């Protein structure tokens, strides 16, 4: 896990120029195993239902990552089934959550769900290229091409609840396409342009104008 996060830091902060997560200039980013029934000094460490990990903040406002103990089991099962190499699922999930802590620092987390989940999935897929978890999300775009990119990912905008829960992650294909066709610097500029419009697509239009 530590190695995966160190690689995530190098790829996202050092090489691409994303903003460093808050506090990392003076301390390490804390990662906890949650959903074990153990209570930390700042409360229960629980991961939201259906997720293998979660980026959040501690009681002092510093970013942390909480992972479920079965993340390692999920990784091992995928290896046994021939889906990925040992550690790939772990690295993908941790890179995804690390990018959320970057987004906390950038001030873009929570603006548009499709944008911040899609970007974090792109970060995970970039660290573990063509990994099965990412492409499991991508099937939604193939099967439901009529769903707009900026659909909120809620049952109100996408009637099928399962599709609604996966769609925001499947949008990683868009930043991947932009990076492949126009260069990753454009994607980084899009994600870090805090002086642009708050709407993600409007901000991209402004960059491309």
Give a short synopsis of this structure.
This protein has 209 residues and is mainly alpha-helical. It is 52% helix and 9% strand.
Write structural notes for this entry:
Helix content is 52%, strand content 9%. The chain has 209 residues and is mainly alpha-helical. The strands form 2 sheets. Strands 1-5-4 form a 3-stranded mixed beta sheet, with helices on one face. A hairpin with a 2-residue loop joins strand 2 and strand 3. Helix 4 (113-127) packs across helix 6 (161-170) and helix 7 (173-182) crosses helix 8 (184-192). The longest helix is centred in the middle third of the chain and has 19 residues, at 88-106.
Describe the global form. Answer: globular
- The proportion of strand residues reads 5-15%
Please give the count of helices: 9
By secondary-structure content and strand pairing, the structural class works out as: mainly alpha
The helix fraction, in percent, is 40-55%
- The SSE order reads HEEEEEHHHHHHHH
What characterizes the major β-sheet?
Answer: 3 strands, mixed
Overall mean pLDDT: 84
Order of strands, main sheet, comes to 1-5-4
Based on CA atoms alone, the radius of gyration comes out at 17 Å
Total beta strands: 5
Low-pLDDT stretches are none
- Give the termini separation: 41 Å
């Amino acid at each position: 896990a530590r190695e995966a996060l160190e690689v995530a830091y190098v790829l996202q902060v050092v090489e691409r120029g994303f903003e460093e997560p808050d506090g990392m200039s003076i301390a390490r980013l804390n990662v906890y195993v949650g959903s074990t029934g153990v209570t930390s000094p700042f409360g229960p460490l629980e991961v939201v239902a259906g997720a293998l990990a979660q980026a959040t903040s501690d009681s002092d406002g510093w970013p942390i990552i909480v992972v479920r103990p079965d993340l390692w089991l999920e990784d091992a099962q995928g290896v046994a089934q021939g889906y990925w190499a040992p550690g790939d699922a772990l690295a993908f999930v941790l890179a995804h959550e690390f990018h959320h802590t970057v987004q906390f620092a950038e001030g873009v987390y929570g603006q548009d769900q499709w944008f911040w989940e899609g970007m974090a999935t792109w970060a995970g897929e970039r660290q573990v290229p063509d990994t099965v978890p990412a492409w499991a999300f991508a099937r939604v775009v193939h099967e439901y091409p009529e769903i707009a990119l900026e659909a909120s990912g809620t049952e109100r905008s996408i009637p099928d609840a399962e599709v609604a829960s996966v769609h925001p992650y499947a949008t990683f294909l868009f930043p991947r396409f932009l990076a492949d066709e126009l260069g990753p610097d454009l994607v980084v500029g899009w994600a870090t342009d805090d002086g642009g419009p708050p709407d993600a697509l409007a901000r991209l239009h402004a960059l491309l104008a």
